[in-house]
Amino acid sequence: EKHFTLDCSLEGPDQNASLEPVEFKRLVDAVRHIELAMGNGIKEPAKPEIANRAIVRKSLVAKQDIEAGTILDMEMVCTKRPGNGIPAIEIYDYLGKELKQSVKTNSLFEEKHFA
Prior knowledge:
Elements: E1 3-4, E2 18-19, H1 21-38, H2 47-56, E3 59-62, E4 77-80, H3 91-94
Parallel strand pairs: 1-2
Antiparallel strand pairs: 3-4
């Protein structure tokens, strides 16, 4: 809450705590500037970040040669760039699953390896 007056020199209980028109406009402009800086509250990547997403994110990669029929565990998996394979964040979705195809060391895991 902010009090408004046409003239702070007038008598009244709130005059000293009130803003005159020019000061009030400055306050409103500053609030609008802060609102713009805060954004809309929706966190989403900027266009340049989208272009770099695959480069900076990591994918699931085989630490060793793994034969078909093997149950995948943490010791067999590492994460590496680029992020154009199965995203590293999904690692727990694949641990404990059986590989349907063999995977070579340093190869990206793909859905087809598990399908």
